[in-house]
């Protein structure tokens, strides 16, 4: 069987023939794989910025924590303000830290593809550098002091004060990297092909959203005193919707931010996990299948379909969620336009539809209408017709196979 498999080849611009196979060295450089990784990285940054702009900035961001620490110690932290964003306003506080997180995550991903010997050397060098930066100045000044004075003694206060700068620097970087943990682990997972790092990025984001929701709960927030005032709270009663489609306002800005966070998490998860899943599938194929033109063509079709579905289905998910949250506005708008009665406006101003559980009612109505509509609209035939119009050659080949 392996003798019947020929190597697929593409003719380059120079006329040379370069074989295309499913070996990881070539597959990782394929434009579809790189596109999925770039899409996952953009979704990760967008998710992080959306979470930060909704819950963190101006409330519990790292610059406020650094200001509090500087007041407690009565001195400036050794880490530069240009690096932390301290002194800037709004989202500009996170621009430089995000670049730092991308570089660190990319470096960790690059390290993951090195040989174990190189990884061990890099880790050992990092540990030695950290030890030298932490106690190197103390040991040097203490040992030289004892050497010149010809006496055995403990370090004095001036020598111990040399620990202040490295300890404050390590503490500052730890706080900064803790805020950047989703970006660092996400980039490492995308480009380093690590499921665990991707799960860390998503899990830490969801954990933060869960803790924030608990702290924002009125009963708990009231017990926090002055600290509770710094937590951004999304009220139980929403204002008038300002975002919608086709001129119909459906959701508020806060609701749209939550929808964007959910959609971006799904894009990040599906794209990053998809790359790992496809590469694992190619890696487990027998050597003969990796060189089979049919397998290469099938991999291209699968990757192209995944790219289309990433924008198509997840985009429709965001639109459907937006309509579901404001579905009562759609129904009331239709009734009001058709009847002209005043009861539709009175219902739209009711407290039940303005509270959070009113969103659940709207979503349930939307799902009910879609479930009923399924019995009247043949969605399978519609999708089949669209697929046949987009891929007529595949349908023709399928008919020929059946006839044979």
Which terms would index this structure?
single chain, 404 residues, mainly alpha, two-stranded antiparallel ribbon, 20 helices, 4 strands, 72% helix
Word description of this protein:
This protein has helices spanning 24-27, 31-56, 62-73, 81-84, 95-112, 116-149, 157-160, 164-179, 181-192, 195-216, 218-223, 253-284, 287-290, 293-325, 327-339, 343-348, 351-354, 356-373, 379-390, 392-403; strands at 8-11, 17-20, 243-245, 248-251. With 404 residues, it is mainly α. It has a domain at 57-233. The strands form two sheets. It has a two-stranded antiparallel sheet with strand order 1-2. Strand 1 and strand 2 form a beta hairpin. Mean pLDDT is 78; it is low at 1-17 and 393-404.
Q: What gross morphology would you assign?
A: flat
Sheet/helix structural class: mainly alpha
Unreliable residue runs? 1-17, 393-404
Q: How far from one another are the termini? A: 23 Å
The H-and-E topology, N to C, reads as EEHHHHHHHHHHHEEHHHHHHHHH
Total strands: the figure is 4
Give the biggest beta sheet. 2 strands, antiparallel
Spatial order of strands in the largest sheet: 1-2
- Please state the average pLDDT score: 78
Radius of gyration: 29 Å
Helix content: over 70%
β-strand percent reads under 5%
Please work out how many helical segments DSSP would assign.
Answer: 20
């Amino acid at each position: 069987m392996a003798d019947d498999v020929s190597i697929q080849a593409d003719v380059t611009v120079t006329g040379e023939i370069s074989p295309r196979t499913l070996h990881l060295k070539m597959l990782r450089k394929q434009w579809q794989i790189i596109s999925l990784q770039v899409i996952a990285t953009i979704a990760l940054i967008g998710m992080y910025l959306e979470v930060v702009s909704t819950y963190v900035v101006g409330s519990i961001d790292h610059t406020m924590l650094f200001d509090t620490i500087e007041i407690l110690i009565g001195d400036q932290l050794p880490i530069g303000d240009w690096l932390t964003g301290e002194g800037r306003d709004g989202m500009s506080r996170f621009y430089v830290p995000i670049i730092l997180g991308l570089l660190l995550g990319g470096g960790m991903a690059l390290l993951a593809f090195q040989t174990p010997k190189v990884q061990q050397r890099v880790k050992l060098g990092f540990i030695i550098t950290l030890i030298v930066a932490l106690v190197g100045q103390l040991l040097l000044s203490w040992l030289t002091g004892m050497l010149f004075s010809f006496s055995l003694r403990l370090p004095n206060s001036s020598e111990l004060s040399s620990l202040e700068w490295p300890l404050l620097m390590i503490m500052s970087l730890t706080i900064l990297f803790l805020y950047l943990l989703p970006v660092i682990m996400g980039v490492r997972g995308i480009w380093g092909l690590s499921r665990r790092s991707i799960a860390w990025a998503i899990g830490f984001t969801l954990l933060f959203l869960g803790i924030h929701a608990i702290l924002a709960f009125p009963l708990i927030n009231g017990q926090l005193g002055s600290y509770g005032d710094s937590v951004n709270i999304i009220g139980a009663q929403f204002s008038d919707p300002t975002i919608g489609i086709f001129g119909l306002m459906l959701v508020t800005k806060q609701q749209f931010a939550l929808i964007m966070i959910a959609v971006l998490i799904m894009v990040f998860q599906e794209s990053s996990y998809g790359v790992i899943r496809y590469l694992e599938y190619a890696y487990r194929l027998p050597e003969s299948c990796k060189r089979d033109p049919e397998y290469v063509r099938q991999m291209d079709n699968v990757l192209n379909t995944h790219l289309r579905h990433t924008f198509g289905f997840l985009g429709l998910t965001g639109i459907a969620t937006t309509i579901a949250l404001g579905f009562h506005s759609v129904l009331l708008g239709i009734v009001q336009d058709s009847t002209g009665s005043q009861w539709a406006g009175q219902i739209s101003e009711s407290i039940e539809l303005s509270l959070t559980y009113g969103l659940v009612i709207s979503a349930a109505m939307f799902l009910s209408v879609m479930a009923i509509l399924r019995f009247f609209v043949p969605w399978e035939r519609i999708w089949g017709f669209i697929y046949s119009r987009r891929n007529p050659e595949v349908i023709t080949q399928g008919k020929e196979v059946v006839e044979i």
